[in-house]
């Protein structure tokens, strides 16, 4: 019986490409698979086909997160992969998925060894790669989908510049490992990468169940720009005076009720909340 690939895409995404998705479908079919095209978007929640043997998400990290959550809720056991068609593609970057449709399809269908990715939650919402409570949440809230369709990831840069002009600081308290830390921004890595090819926790891994945390004691404009500079230069932002870094499996964060937390590029919840490594895994290729 040929493999049956359920291919998810988000047609509402600013990076959606019908041409590339059609090429990926042809690549799967040329490799001997049957393909079920499905949608995962704000208007159409993902539904897992019970006859599918593989799940492929042609989209960004947020779409992967939604589809993976649907797989987990249904207790399905089929492997998942991300075809890098989103803005950032953190999971695809860490897993080394190739953007060439033929090479991607051949690897996906031929893989005998699965990568067991540990998941985490913000409150009850799953995330796979990273979460944060910081200025980037305001940028996510304020970016323009129309502009994203025209200039891609640079729409977030435009939104971040606007955030810098209308700067807000929020006093929070991070609780973990029996200690409490006053802070103004918190970054949580489940995987290695954050916002692109950068990392504030290079030892973090999707294959590890630990949360890698960096907290900024103050988040003035210059503190945040130093944080971005540390990312660009590969330096540890937790080593700066007033900041902290550590690993844990559970933390809680208190602060103003309007402060938002993002996970994998989606705004997930507001404070106060808990973040946990679930200790459970999902199969990726």
TrEMBL record:
GO molecular function, one term: kinase activity
Top-rank taxon, per record: Bacteria
KW Ribonucleoprotein (keyword) present: no
This protein's UniProt keywords: ATP-binding, Kinase, Nucleotide-binding, Transferase
Keyword hit for ATP-binding: yes
Annotated DAGKc domain residues: 1-126
Protein name (Swiss-Prot/TrEMBL): DAGKc domain-containing protein
């Amino acid at each position: 019986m040929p493999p049956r690939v359920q291919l998810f895409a988000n047609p509402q995404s600013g990076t959606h490409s019908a041409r590339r998705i059609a090429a990926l479908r042809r690549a799967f079919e040329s490799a001997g698979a049957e393909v079920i095209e499905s949608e995962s978007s704000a208007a159409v929640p993902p539904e897992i086909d019970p006859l599918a043997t593989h799940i492929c998400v042609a989209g960004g990290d947020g779409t992967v997160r939604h589809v993976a959550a649907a797989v987990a809720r249904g207790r399905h056991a089929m492997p998942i992969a991300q075809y890098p068609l989103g803005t950032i593609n953190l999971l695809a970057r860490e897993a080394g998925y190739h953007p060439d449709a033929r090479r991607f399809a051949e690897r996906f269908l031929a893989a005998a060894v699965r990568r067991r990715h540990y998941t985490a939650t913000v409150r009850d919402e799953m995330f796979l790669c990273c979460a944060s409570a910081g200025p980037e949440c305001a940028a996510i809230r304020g970016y323009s989908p129309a502009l994203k369709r025209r200039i891609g990831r640079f729409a977030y840069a435009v939104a971040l510049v606007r955030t810098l002009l209308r700067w807000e600081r929020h006093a929070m308290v991070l609780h973990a490992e029996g200690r409490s830390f006053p802070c103004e921004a918190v970054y949580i890595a489940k995987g290695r990468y954050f916002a692109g090819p950068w990392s504030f926790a290079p030892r973090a891994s999707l294959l590890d169940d630990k949360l890698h945390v960096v907290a900024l004691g103050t988040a003035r404009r210059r503190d945040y720009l130093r944080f971005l500079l540390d990312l660009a230069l590969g330096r540890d932002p937790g080593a700066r005076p007033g900041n902290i870094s550590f690993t844990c499996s559970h933390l809680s964060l208190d602060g103003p009720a309007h402060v938002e937390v993002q996970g994998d590029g989606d705004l997930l919840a507001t404070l106060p909340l808990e973040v946990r490594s679930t200790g459970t895994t999902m199969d990726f290729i």
